[in-house]
Amino acid sequence: MYPWATRYCNRHPHEGVESKLGTKGTGKTHTLIEIIRQLTSTSSTNPKPLRVLVCGASNLAVDNVLERLLALPVTKSENRLKVTRIGHPARVMSNNNILDSTLDMKAGRSDEVSEVIPLCCNIRLTGLLARRPSRKT
């Protein structure tokens, strides 16, 4: 889509990308999505896909990027992009795909977490009982 993005990423594979401010409708998010797509895709010029951390000035900005990343079409040669949204669930856009991408939702579906929760409860309870003053009769 953006040949210049491919050329830039191939020449500078380990440099950070600086964000640019601009007015609405100038293509900032669209450009960011394309850069992320190219960095995380496998190709002859990019045999090992990179991991990308996306940060934004607001929760809405991060959710906007995430929503567009999740909507990217998947080709036969590519797998769906694996994303994890980190942030307080109450501040995440109420879109099912985005909510399913949150760390809390992913952790809740994990078998390891379901085993750890009772242990945490026991540790808290033990700590509370240990701090409780003893009753003398």
Q: How would you describe this structure to a colleague?
A:
There is one protein chain. The chain is mostly helical and 137 residues long. It has one domain. It is 48% helix and 0% strand. It contains six helices and no strands. The protein has helices at residues 3-11, 28-40, 59-70, 96-100, 103-108, 111-131. Helix 2 crosses helix 3. The longest helix is centred in the C-terminal third of the chain and has 21 residues, at 111-131. The chain is elongated, with a radius of gyration of 22 Å. The N and C termini lie far apart (80 Å). The model has no long low-confidence stretch (mean pLDDT 76).
What labels would you give this structure?
137 residues, mainly alpha, 6 helices
Helix-strand layout with pairing:
Layout: H1 3-11, H2 28-40, H3 59-70, H4 96-100, H5 103-108, H6 111-131
Give a brief rundown of this model.
With 137 residues, the chain is mainly alpha-helical. It has six helices and no strands.
Q: Sheet bearing the most strands, described?
A: none
Order of helices and strands: HHHHHH
Instruction: Please provide the count of β strands.
Output: 0
Distinct helical segment count = 6
Quote the average pLDDT.
76
Uncertain runs: none
Straight-line N-to-C gap: 80 Å
Structural class: mainly alpha
Strand content: under 5%
Portion of residues within helices: 40-55%
Radius of gyration: 22 Å
Overall 3D geometry? elongated
The number of domains: 1
